[in-house]
Amino acid sequence: xxxxxxxxxxxxxxxxxxxxxxxxxxxxxxxxxxxxxxxxxxxxxxxxxxxxxxxxxxxxxxxxxxxxxxxxxxxxxxxxxxxxxxxxxxxxxxxxxxxxxxxxxxxxxxxxxxxxxxxxxxxxxxxxxxxxxxxxxxxxxxxxxxxxxxxxxxxxxxxxxxxxxxxxxxxxxxxxxxxxxxxxxxxxxxxxxxxxxxxxxxxxxxxxxxxxxxxxxxxxxxxxxxxxxxxxxxxxxxxxxxxxxxxxxxxxxxxxxxxxxxxxxxxxxxxxxxx
Length: 275
Hints:
alpha+beta; elongated; AraC family transcriptional regulator
């Protein structure tokens, strides 16, 4: 059923990091041309049919499993090319909305491919139900929902010609499991790539796409996390022995890495947290 919900927010709610301004859905999405754009961010998810989005000099096809992330105040035009073009949508804003989207590399209007569209759709439907309820906390709960939707878009979306972060992560799982079981041993890029049966270069590519880290940056962070657990669980064990237990032959190198990441030495970390 076609429906639109527009929200009237108080000054307090307008100060939230995220707030929902409207939500709804169309069984037959209308031709929409906005010369001056829309005042808020929009996520418009395609349920069936196919449409076209034109914005910022680009033209995109939009079909089921995809959606349009639209930035505020940017001219856009979208319309159906295979009907019925059914959509569900939500608009939002907030003092941290643009900053968070930009930090997650979603810094312009785009069509995104979803590897798990039902996860995002479920949150859109939940937001619709909340906005129509009499729950006094509905706008606060919708704020949490839109935050979760943005994170879902980061996790499960890609441009149509790229795989999603989740797919990259799933492909990496054999290497991640190997690190989990052998982090205390010497590890090489060749060893990790052999677990995946791909080239070392593509292994680096997958780590960058999944974590924004090179493989050995990931390994160091993994080892240091385990080191923090051991430092607190075994206060009687010397730091140099903790270093060897997590794969560092030289305690001085371990201490240097630990201080770079945590801002304190392993001994100081142990003292603060044991207190």
